[in-house]
Amino acid sequence: MEDYKLDKLYSYESIRKRVSALADDLNEFEYSLFNSPCPVFIGVMNGAFMFMTDLIRKLEFPITTDFIRVMSYRGTKRCDMYLEYEPKVQLSNQDIVLIEDIIDSGNTINFLYNYFTKTQEVRSCMILSLLERKPVDVPMHKSLYRLDTDKFVVGYGLDYNDELRHLPDIYTLEVEDDK
Description:
The protein is an alpha/beta fold. The protein has a single domain, classed as Rossmann fold. Helices cover 21% and strands 39% of the residues. The chain has helices at residues 12-28, 49-56, 107-119; strands at residues 2-10, 40-44, 64-74, 77-85, 95-103, 124-132, 141-146, 152-154, 170-177. The strands form two sheets. The protein has a six-stranded mixed beta sheet with strand order 4-3-2-5-6-7, with helices on both faces. A three-stranded antiparallel beta sheet has the order 1-9-8. Helix 1 (12-28) packs across helix 2 (49-56). The mean pLDDT is 86.
């Protein structure tokens, strides 16, 4: 059994305000950057679902939504990244917006950016992330928060062993194993 020590990093109120500001920017300025009349917002599962849900509720233009899941482990062994679940909507000649929970090493978002821009013939690919630990070298990228800690974070969709995802706030996590 494990005991958790949680320290609040960002409150839901703070997150909500930043999501609203991002939606306002998208409504006012960014939508004009899209070439297709109905951009596709794709959530990277599982962690991005809360961020994506809160964001798309505030958008004032038509969108299509779908999800994608990337895996980099088979069991406990690290492997080349692969798609466990691919979007089902038509992506060719579309503008897409990838919604990610956290950009940590940058490997997943770079994998997805290359997947969409090189194999799906999309018009453009915007990256929106809740948290960013490491800057990524992709155009059209926005993050709500820049993490200045190396600690593990949970809540608002982010999990630890499939737990704590439901928390409305974002916390740093320390785990103490019982012996």
